[in-house]
Specification:
9 strands; nine-stranded mixed beta sheet; 16% strand; Rossmann fold
Length: 383
């Protein structure tokens, strides 16, 4: 009787939640169709401008550009994850006994975006720049479900368990009952890597010593911000485009990946220092893997899983946090950064880099390294 009464009382709430999910999915569908039409018109303009031969053509890069696969920026290694057996590629630099700094890149990049920070911090830390699954030289499972958020976060956990610096303060117990020092790292993420860093630090705070996030929203904040600032929906239009099947892959590859080149080297990059705008050779460091057959789909699957019913952590990470943002970010409204900062612990730091674009690790690596070194050297404590 009591259970029936409780179910009856909860029925209106369940109905409202179901309606909310239905409205949200309908909204995403409408936005995806609108984005598909808009970007489709762009593709039509490319076709009229370049003709069929110049539009439906792209070059598969058969040789990696200098610096991508050699040892210029660090040692190339592979890690087999224990649970899934997936092979991930990473580039490491620094003393093997130094504290681990794990770098997580975003879309459409790979470990190469961290080349400057590998050099900046490679004398003090054991820096590891990871190719996330589906990117670069890491394995690329074809299934959409292989890129669910919880799967990606579990990859980060296993990487830290394999490479992390023993804490000496906490202990973990293995399946055999043995205890060992809990592995930790300094976790640094940009774009999609930043989103993963936000959520991993909130759910596994004992495995992260300090957190650095660059140009990456938190799922608990960005939806409410976009509702109050519709311009963010326009900045994020590509997110809705990526919900569609096959069309994003086609549009991104048109005219030898013209859209990806524009994203990485458009007028919103190198504003303070045009010399920092990516060269054609640096762009090819990303297009080398993305141009291979089928290689565009795995990174887009990240976005196709973004609106699933994955629980959103509401509590901010309890550890020392540095939030870095470019004032000229073309994809994420700079006003989003203070909103994120207000949701963090009082000890968290926010630094806005004047004139910097979304591509912080490459746009202004020296100022970025100075801000990070100051934060990492500070005697921060948990609030």
């Amino acid at each position: 009787m009591l259970l029936s009464l409780c179910s009856l009382l909860l029925a209106p709430t369940r109905l409202l939640l179901a309606l909310w999910r239905l409205v949200a999915r309908l909204g995403v569908t409408v936005a995806a169709v609108a984005a598909g039409v808009a970007y489709g018109l762009w593709g039509l303009w490319v076709l009229l401008r370049r003709g069929p031969r110049g539009t439906f053509w792209w070059r598969v890069r058969d040789r990696p550009p200098p610096g991508l696969a050699d040892g210029t920026f660090g040692e190339h290694r592979y890690l087999h994850l224990k649970d899934s057996g997936l092979r991930l590629h990473y580039v490491t630099r620094g003393p093997p006994t130094a504290p681990l700094m794990l770098l997580l890149h975003g879309f459409p990049q790979n470990w190469f975006c961290w080349r400057h920070l590998l050099q900046e911090f490679g004398t003090t830390y054991r820096v590891a720049a990871l190719d996330l699954r589906g990117y670069g030289a890491s394995e690329k499972p074809p299934e959409k479900d292989s890129y669910r958020l919880e799967v990606l976060l579990d990859d980060v956990r296993q990487v830290i368990e394999a490479l992390g610096t023993p804490d000496g303060q906490g202990e973990v117990t293995s399946a055999t009952g043995a205890t060992a020092a809990a592995p930790k790292c300094i976790l640094v993420g940009h774009d999609w890597g930043g989103l993963l860093a936000w959520e991993f630090a909130a759910s596994h705070p004992t495995m992260v010593e300090k957190l650095v996030v660059m140009g990456a929203p938190h799922r608990a904040v960005v939806a409410g911000f976009a509702a109050c600032h519709p311009s963010q929906l326009l900045r994020s239009s590509y997110v809705f485009l990526f919900q569609l099947p096959w069309l994003p892959e086609l549009l991104l590859s048109l005219a030898d990946f013209e859209l990806l080149k524009t994203i990485l080297t458009g007028p919103w990059t190198g504003i303070e220092n045009p010399a920092r705008r990516l060269s054609a050779q640096e762009v090819d460091a990303y297009l080398y893997s993305l141009s291979q057959p089928g290689a565009l789909t795995p990174p887009i699957h990240y976005y196709r899983n973004l609106f699933r019913d994955t629980p959103i952590p509401r509590e901010p990470p309890p550890l020392p946090t540095l939030l870095l943002w470019g004032t000229h970010d073309a994809f994420l409204d700079p006003r989003l950064a203070p909103c994120l900062h207000r949701c963090l612990r009082p000890s968290a730091r926010l630094c806005l880099l004047p004139g910097a674009s979304h591509w912080l690790p490459e746009d202004q690596p020296r100022p970025l390294a100075r801000l990070m070194a100051d934060f990492l050297g500070a005697d921060d404590h948990h609030p």
